[in-house]
Amino acid sequence: MQFLSYLVNGISLGSIYAVIALGYTMVYGIARMLNFAHGDVIMVGGYIAYTVMTTMGMPALAGIGAAVLVCTLLGVTIERVAYKPLREAPSLAVLITAIGMSYLLQNLALLIFGSAPKSFSSVVSFQPLRLLGGQLIITGETLTTILVSAVIMVALTLFVNKTKVGHAMQAVSEDKGAAQLMGINVNATISLTFAIGSALAAVAGVLLCSAYPTLIPTTGAMPGIKAFVAAVFGGIGSIPGAMLGGVLLGIIQSLSTAYISSQMADAIVFGVLIVVLLVKPTGILGRQTREKV
Amino acid sequence: MALLEVRNLGITFGGLHAVEKFSVSVEKGQLYGLIGPNGAGKTTVFNLLTGVYQPTEGEIVLDGKSIVGQKPAVINKAGIARTFQNIRLFKDMTVLDNVKVALHNQVKYSALTGVLRLPAYFKQERVMNEKALSLLKIFDLEGEAAQMASSLPYGKQRKLEIARALATGPKLLLLDEPAAGMNPNETAELMEIVRLVRDRFGIAILLIEHDMSFVMGLCERIVVLDYGRVIAEGDPETVRTDPKVIAAYLGGEA
Amino acid sequence: MKIKSLNHNFRRSLVTYGIVIAAFAVIQIISGMGMLTNSLSGQLVPICAYIIMAVSLNLTVGILGELSLGHAGFMSVGAFMGAFVSVCLTDVMPGWLSLTLALLAGTAAAAVIGLLIGIPVLRLQGDYLAIVTLAFGEIIKNLLNSFYVGRDASGFHFSLKDAPSLNLDETGEIIINGAQGITGMPRSATFTLGFVLILITLAIVQNLIDSRTGRAIMSIRDNRIAAESVGVNITKYKLIGFSVSAALAGLAGAMYAHNFSTLVARKFDYNTSILVLVFIVVGGLGNIRGSVIAAAALTVLPELLRGFSDYRMLVYAVVLIVMMLFNQSPQLAAWRRKWTAKLTRGQADGKGA
């Protein structure tokens, strides 16, 4: 039974990673850049929800709505101001700019909210689920996280594969020039991708802070890195890959914390990533590309 | 025994036979042309010969030794050098250094010798510089030796690529569309250089080229590829009048 | 023409040495006059360490052309190995000898780890390689965080679990204590040592670049397929570049460790790797002199921004973003060229009139 409860926790944590990884992977697919500031958008989402709910005393739904709204605007603004001018620049230049953006967000949060941890009140109010005669207890947060993530994944998959805008996003990630010639508004599509990715980050932020209620300016950094690993693990650029990678990563982390050592859990997560990439150099669901000679 | 003996070479990409049953035999010092319509598989043949792709079937024998399955660097050491259709220079290195990289296996000293600046470093660097400059001189590039390779005009970039390939001391040189993008003057000059290279270094040259006057005027033998298969082989006159070749180029049924 | 072009690299290296020597002399004079602030003089050894880190990372990223996000991992290997050797040897031999051995041990350990990591990692390409170097950096940090070493009458004891499981007898002492790190190093690193090690690092890297080996490494960066086609053994030269880079990071770490009496592995997480990456991108990829200057300037900058107190890291972030936008954006570059042209023309007209 212990095992089942660790597994459920792992799936729940993994679902959060998956939601963050979706943002990473969509942005990578379309802009070919590692958006290092993505993790910090999660943190911003957490602080906005905290402000609305705890400081202003408004209901949870308002907090979530505000977080999504602010993060969406933030994501689009970051892209317009910092990344768009560098679209033709070497990829390392964009990476460094993203790192600068990450420092900027963290230090803004530090100035506004201070370095003392804020205790986040959960957005979930219903009782834990008791299964198997009370041997397996699933908290409301865990259940909500899994459900919300599942809905997001299904909705996003449908959106990308079934709608015209979704097709446009796929086209732009395939070939910007060709997409432009086909009459797709490339700039708008990229903005939209950042908007969706950041909105997802906001949701992930609220879920993360509900499950792990300590909020500090660097809250988003490690989950950001983990989600990045999850995206690469599943095959960066691939939406099903990000989901699979995220969930697997969460399970691996939860089980190694439980059965091996909490100190070594991160090392094991990264170790598995390395093994996967050595066996399959483009991740589990990534596409193999052949260089034309 | 010919210098290069290729028998029944073939490769499939996802079920598609890109090259099938390709055979050719190149003698020492021979100027050999490889022609065919676009997409016939000419560059694929080069990639197979140089180990960039691994053939699914067939044999490649250079100077009596099979080189199938070897890595590109090993094949280069065995004696095959090449140029690329889409020029592949070391862009952020000087013209001189581009050639010196290719002298890598000709003039050697260890990494430690280089870091510690032992006497062997200065001696071998001098040898390298002399060799590299004399090669650049053949291609009239010695004036640009200190420039970045990316700053050269297109025609000179093509020439530098040939110089670089020659620096590896090959027995067989593969030129992939050496005259592409050149004006008639440059093309005529290039023909002279190719002949000069063959005479001076005594090496065999296999070249892909779309400029028919270039191929016909230069090559002693020609092999024609269409849809991955050899459709004709022989001296320029035979190939020029072969009905299958004419049909392939005009797009009719053979 | 011939002589000039051949001496170009050599002259460029000389200028770099010159800048470093001049900076050292100036700081020594300022320090001698007692005009160096305490906080800045405490930064001198770390600045030297970061300069060595930047130069060595530039070998991987700028010269070999592979993005590494785990360079701090090699620094920590060197730091812990160096500190460990020092703690063990400090009572049995003169200080200069144990320091020298510690620096050599740190360098060698990082080189070995670099080689071991390089063999699998360098098969990957681009962003995948980057993420795996980040992963290795984090793994090293985690391992060091749960690494325990003790010594007693019966010799050394190791554990990956906790201090009690070292099973030390009553004479025993813990040398490396997991997340609490290592303590008891002699604080023997000086600015002069840092200066000498910078010169050695510069000599190794600049001489390597301007040699047969360095050209082979750069050819892989510029065009892997062409490099193979002229007979360059890709794996071998990637490994040489990567492990020399790791070794020098180990040297930086070993020196850095001797600036403190306590050292923890947390200090060397991916934030440190990224900080060094920022140095080399700002200084210019492949530009060794730029790395030296950027590492020094960007380490001093937050100190100089102390006047802004709470805002200093914010200012640092904004400076970084604006600098990248200004230097790398094609539109801004074109705009800048236009204005420079206008201004210089204006000057020329002015002179003509």
Describe the structure.
The complex is a heterotrimer of chains A (293), B (254) and C (353). With 293 residues, chain A is mainly alpha-helical. Chain A has one domain. Chain A is 72% helix and 3% strand. In chain A, the strands form 2 sheets. In chain A, strands 1-4 form a two-stranded antiparallel ribbon. In chain A, helix 1 (2-31) runs antiparallel to helix 10 (239-259) and helix 6 (164-174) packs across helix 8 (186-211). Chain B has a domain at 4-91 and 164-250: Rossmann fold. Chain B has 10 helices and 10 strands. In chain B, the strands form 2 sheets. A 6-stranded mixed sheet of chain B has the order 6-7-8-3-9-10, with helices on both faces. Chain C contains 13 helices and 5 strands. Chain C has helices at 2-32, 38-63, 71-89, 95-121, 126-145, 191-209, 212-222, 224-229, 234-257, 270-283, 288-304, 312-328, 330-352; strands at residues 148-152, 155-159, 173-177, 182-183, 262-263. In chain C, helix 2 packs parallel to helix 6. The longest helix of chain C is centred in the first third of the chain and has 31 residues, at 2-32. Chain B binds chain C through residues 50, 52, 71-73, 76-77, 81-82, 84, 88-94, 96-97, 100-102, 104-105, 107-109, 111, 113-117, 121, 124, 128-129, 133, 143, 145-146, 164-165, 167-168, and chain C through 1-2, 4-6, 8, 203-204, 207-208, 210-216, 218-219, 221-223, 225-234, 240, 286.
